[in-house]
Backbone:
């Protein structure tokens, strides 16, 4: 199941800003220690470190355990570094691209918009946040005045996260995918080798 509980607690538990809502960010800044009474960060085992890094990926990209396992298994069948390839698959998710292109304040908001068919992929309505984009794909907001007004408000306050593999055109409420992401494009700082070791057990 995808996590739907308090996001501030997850940021504090993982000591990372995996959720971007203002409350969750402020909570980590004010209290940079795990939730609960008399808790502090001691020396962690390799297992605990691997689990924490895996949880960062799940919460950051909004994945269920089953989805992450599917990406991991797909990456193991590809040539190259398994951990990097797994993250690159996550980066290609439609909800992640919409967020990074500045058309949503957060990935949960991007997912909600996709599920409610606010966006089109290559001119076709799509309600699948996990769809993987490819070079040549074009993402647009549906031609409805209320949606255009809503997403223009978002683009006025949200910055585009630069990426070399897609071109964000917020003035046109459009994103054009020009290539595939590279390891340097991954937006989540993480020790992915620990995740691979953990998931290979």
Residues:
């Amino acid at each position: 199941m995808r996590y739907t509980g308090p996001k501030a607690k997850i940021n504090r538990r993982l000591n990372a800003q995996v959720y971007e809502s203002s409350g969750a960010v402020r909570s980590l800044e004010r209290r940079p220690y795990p939730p609960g009474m008399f808790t502090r960060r001691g020396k962690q085992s390799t297992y605990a470190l691997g689990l924490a890094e895996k949880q960062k990926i799940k919460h950051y990209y909004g994945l269920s355990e089953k989805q992450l396992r599917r990406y991991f298994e797909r990456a193991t069948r590809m040539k190259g570094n398994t951990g990097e390839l797994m993250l690159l698959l996550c980066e290609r998710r439609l909800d992640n691209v919409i967020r990074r292109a500045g058309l949503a304040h957060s990935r949960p908001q991007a997912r909600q918009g996709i599920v409610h068919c606010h966006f089109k992929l290559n001119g076709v309505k799509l309600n699948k946040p996990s769809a993987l984009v490819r070079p040549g794909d074009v993402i647009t907001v549906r031609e409805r005045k209320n949606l255009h007004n809503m997403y223009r408000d978002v683009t006025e306050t949200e910055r585009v996260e630069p990426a070399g593999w897609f071109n964000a055109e917020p003035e046109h409420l459009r994103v054009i995918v020009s290539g595939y992401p590279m390891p340097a494009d991954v937006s989540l700082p993480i020790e992915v080798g620990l995740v691979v070791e953990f998931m290979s057990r």
Q: What stands out?
A: The chain has a mean pLDDT of 85. The radius of gyration is 17 Å. The chain has two domains: 7-90+187-199, 93-180. Residues 93-180 form a domain with the Structural Genomics Hypothetical 15.5 Kd Protein In mrcA-pckA Intergenic Region; Chain A fold (CATH 3.10.290.10).
